[in-house]
Amino acid sequence: VEGGLGLKIPSYHVNLSQQPQDRWNATLADFLRLRGTRPFSTFYSAVLELMEKKDSEAFNYYLTHVADFESAYAELYPEALMEMRVLAEMLQRHAASEEERAALSWHRVFLGQLHIQIENIGPRLGECTSVVLRPKVEGQDQAGIVHFRNWDFGPRPNALGSASASVEFQDGDGSFTCLLALTHITKWTTCIRPGAFSISLNARLFGERHERLRLLKLGRPPRTEVLRRLMRSSSYGDALTAAALSKPLTSLYVILADGVASQSVVTLFGNGSSADVLPMPLTGEKDDWFLVQTNVDHWVPTSQDAYSSHRRDHVAASLRRLGPEAPVDRLFKVLLDAHVFPEGNPGPDDGQVFRNTTIASVLMKPATQEYQA
Length: 373
What we know:
This protein is α+β, with helices and mostly antiparallel strands and about 375 residues long. It has helices at about 25-35, 40-55, 55-75, 80-95, 100-105, 105-115, 155-160, 210-215, 225-230, 235-245, 310-320, 330, and strands spanning about 1-5, 5-10, 10-15, 130-135, 145-150, 165-170, 175-180, 190-195, 195-205, 250-260, 265-270, 275-280, 290-295, 360-365, 370. The protein has 12 helices and 15 strands. Helix 4 packs across helix 6 (about 105-115).
């Protein structure tokens, strides 16, 4: 597993039965010994600098209301807030200089968390690509479902790759594994619970910033909290129910794959409500063996104005060309295609699947324990 500048991504175990102020200490101490704090300060600084440059109104709003956001988290999501505080304290402890320590102050770390939980600055809409498919293997009626994802985020995807780890979480229902950037230890966006299900998150649109604070105080969960609820589910059915009952703070796509019945859905959330559920096609329907989600609604026609719609079409065309009988490793390489689509596409929606913002390409088989990136 590689990320950032070709660095080996380390693996850790985190026991969720421990108190939030204790569960991350050993993992963070070891990771910071290996990598230091530079990837963290690089990413947080880039986030704040870009926010101030590209949307000074949003930047000033968050600075002015940071105490309000912190108070809302303390009341509604105290466990997540404590994990963020532990991260900030560990970064302070391992900072190599006063300059680094200043770049990793609590408010800067917390604003970095708000960025990835509520806002998005960096690649347009995050640029992630999720694919779920049912390959056909000779002699088997059902080969099991496979879940792919290109994880794209920014700014500074190299810093995020350098800050990434594979974490196996233990809870009362067994364990599940996530690939995550330790810059945001509460954000579980590419995860598998073996024998049950897998999830990935793709970004969508965002509401007005004043609405985000108001809805947060009313109990609308940030996207990180929605994903935590899903991964604490013990089965695909429970996770699907948790998704259906969520009324998240900001809009997003959650892609769920069932490791038992080989089915999948994309749940599209509007701001404050569940808006649409797209199931995997039934047997006999068009493209009945795969489902593709980028950062555009499935009913929106392809155009240069519908960002990532050409990327969606590129993946679908590549899968159709290969067919469901192709080996899984060949199907997986669709995510590594950096060509524009269709040929000669000048952009801005150029159809590239593997992009300069891609941090990792992930393969999950929820029916088994196979998880690779």
